[in-house]
Protein 1
Amino acid sequence: MEVKTYQDPQVYYEKVESLLMEEEALNNLPLGIAERLRSQPAKADLITLENGEEVVYTLIHTMRNQWVLPACDADDSVFQTAADFLFYNDYPVGGVVGEKKGATKLIHAYTKRSKRNNRVHMNQYVYRLDALQPINLGKGKLKVAGIAEKGLIASWLYNFGVETGELSIKDDADVLAERMVTAGTMHLWVVDNEPVSMVNQSRNTRNGATVNAVYTPDRHKEKGYATSAVWSLTKKLLDHGFQFCSLYTDADNPASNSIYKKIGYFPIGESVVYRFHTEL
């Protein structure tokens, strides 16, 4: 087994595409990041484990984020090899996110090698939707967020990062708001000309689109606004030709999970986020 690193995002994408497309919806995160890096090159660590010409595993690390792992079958030796490569080559490992079984094997191998403590930051479900279920939309309408709402989006992203413990979102709220508004991906649910909830069209894969950053301020919660916003954006994406939509949820948040199931999303797998902290 050979470990390879790639500098060219296009070459990397061509190497890993067939592996990741075996489970396109489950691999929406690594596929979406790899796709984005092709069109918007940025500093990233792109690693594959290969048997001959066959890619059997891959890891992606963009700056200030955790390592992103795929959903694919792999022998235990693959996870040990990957962990050893990260450790002995002094790669920064603040955490990992990926399909639960594989991510757990990798984190255990790396923890044993590095003698560092890890913790589960979040257990997640990966959801997929192929067809919307009809619902009674609440009052209001969906609109694409504009420049005038950039400050509001930044403040909501900051609060979203605090609530979910995603420090990179909290710390980069202004940058993310600028990017989302400029790209036209951030949407607001508006009632009587007042934004009351937000939802973002995130990364795309060949056949699907991902929804994220679903947030409603406390004073507007429990009014069905998030449900209406997610339903409406999902419909927009399907109407634009995507075959399916996907999203991640906090497995320990029954309220959000019930919202997505009501709309027509169904769980297709489990993911987990591990974080490292103090040395042993």
Protein 2
Amino acid sequence: MSPRSPDDSPPLGFASLRAPSKLKINTRASSWPRTNLDSGPARVAAPEILERWTVDRSELLIGHRFASGAYSRLFHGIYKDQPVAVKFIRQPDDGEDDELSAKLDKQFTSEVTILARLQHRNVIKLVGACNCPTVFCVITEFLSGGSLRAFLRKLERETLPLEKVISIALDIARGLEYIHLQGIVHRDIKPENILFDGEFCAKVVDFGVACEEKYCNLLGDDPGTYRWMAPEMYKHKPYGRKVDVYSFGLVLWELVTGSLPYQDMTPLQAAFAVVNKVCVLF
């Protein structure tokens, strides 16, 4: 058996499904960060919400890594005998990058407090969260059907039956409608952030850059993914929930055609083409 990469192992202090843990595990987070969201009721509520959703780490077992991002790794897990997905967000070492550390802290706090408010068939369900030195952990239901991106890749540009397109589209639309009714803007709708459960029900996931709609324009950040980002976000103009509708439109385009507008361009070139209304013949 080949040796595992350190990235394939859970952070120190988390019990593994692969071998009995000899570590003494603190069952509660030692202390939650007192980081405030920029404004609004969440400023007061965030620490209380985080405390309420803190998991008992003695009942959390970590399995194999199945995905990773720039600052996060996702693992299979078991919590209270139920399958879960566990996202670990590792902060930079002390003093290494204070700005990035603050940004990740804020995104983690925002993601947990937003997910705690959402209960819908087409939105991923929060199970819990925890905080230990240098690592944040977000635990959600495990969705065994994979991502819409993986599903589309397997099709290899074959046309989906119209009934299947409509079924997937309605699931996403219902999830987005619910999210927007709660006053939330997702800001990163794309096929990678749509997952299926075992019954092929599509759910909106990954609320790491989501925000309350009334405060989106006060945050001053640059979230999302260029290829699916609405023009007003590129231009740093005021925006709201319609940016999710724009991204959803691109997801629909790919569902129907098997390709994306400006697919042969880099993400930055595609962004430039969208902003400048460049016409490309298909």
Protein 3
Amino acid sequence: MLAVATAALALLCPSAGAVQGGTPDGNGHPNVGLSVFLYHGIPLWRCTGTMVAAKVYLTAGHCTGIDTDLGVAPDSAQVWFTSGAIPRGTHGFDGTPCKPTDTGYPCKGEFSGTPVPHPGWNGFLTQPNTHDIGVVQLTQAPNVGLSKVAPAGYLDTLATQRGRQDVDFTIVGYGVQFESPNLEVALRQRFVGTNQLQNLRSHLAGGFNLIMSDSAGNGTGGSGTCFGDSGGPVFHTDSDGQVWQVAVISYGTKYCHGSSAAFRLDNAQARAFLSSQGVPLN
């Protein structure tokens, strides 16, 4: 499969794979799915996403929109909600279009739909407002449950909390468990892990991005994001026990170590886009 979009900033790359240092999710988040995006039937890349309305699958803009290196934008998507590992199908992964007779991953998902990027997505991770949000409008409702989108300004209350490192987020994704210059380990299985808040106010955050640590375990109990996690949910549980989806995973540092960023859902821009796509807001 072709590579995902390359980030505009040095050492930053889209996180378009499984949560490093996490554990198999099982049935913990059944509405989080694995998606393959295609152009004229050719599989391009894979991402993670979440059901937020009956037929609306929320993911990243760089999953649903144009890749400036390839000069194309996906025109269809296939989605699976099986926790995995999702087996490979009959396609040869040779850059050719899927045939009508091809079955399974990456050509024939459990559900299919049309990708819709945010209208501001231009193929670059222009900081801080990347517009890195998109949806897939599915043709059928999966009926796997829905995540609740965080209310407006939800994350701002965390920015000034004492002990920011103690603010934990739950991340869920499919795919790469290890990334190095010469090796990639990808499982196509849903994993869940925990990341910690770094900041919301840096020049890279700017009110649009949530910056998290990518410890990938390392004795801290944390985890990290990597390729294929792009578009996956970032959840936060409030003091009343309500779980909110606060962001979608956007990009990370090279080889998936250091920090990662997620595009916030609680800002006016994201909320306007989600509302236009039929997503109920709180």
Protein 4
Amino acid sequence: MDRRVDLRPAEHEAPPEHCGRPGVPGSSGRSGLPGLSGEAPGEAYAVSAEFYDLLHARAYHRHALALAAPAAAARLGIVEVGAGTGLVTGVLIGASNVPVHAVEPSPAMRTVLLSRLHPPVGGSAGERVTVHACSALDLSLDGPADLAVCLRLVPCLPPVERRALWRVLAGLLVPGGLLFLDRPPSGVPAQPVRRGLGQVRLGLDTYHGLLTQCAEDGRIRYDYSYLVCRQGRVLRQARESFLLWPLPRRELGRELAAAGLILEDDLTADVLRARRGA
């Protein structure tokens, strides 16, 4: 008997865009810590990577377009922390003429990233990109950078790691260098929030995604559910859960300032801008 599904969000549910990319379970996963589901180090995104470009690309596209101009203005180098599957990386490469360093520790996400970058995007432009299979906290560069991009990552870090990240980025950037990050959630939801991630048709199959957010011990639990359906029948389903830490803007500003980064006017409604001091 066919099991028919409807993953459309209820009419009263708002479609928040914060951290559309799943965070790393239990901690960043970018420093090798296990996650909610007991993943071994490096296994974060093992479930979500398959569905990522299909169901999460739209939110990334908006951010990528906003970052094209800052990338074009870069004169030394660009660091993208949490490059994921490369949805923003390609824009950073195409808009710039400087070396681009894409940092992605998750093997599952990095597999898609490398497939996207080779053959080289834009011909010789691919010669300027280097993929770093390490945590941002372990990153070491040979040359300077004047632009850093950090999307869909900051809320996924425990506070100690988050503050360490600011220090690392401040050390990588030259004085006056810019950091762009998406706006983190300022608090936990008062009640569970559900929203659909859309659906994509490939041949006979339709891919669905659903996100449920709820408060858990002062953090936000993100539960992602993915379904693959054929003519209304569920062929398979997968789930992955993550924990995020809320971060009000004032606290974010204090943390950045302590690391030598000054929070400036927003680039867009969703993307924040900070500058390394002299």
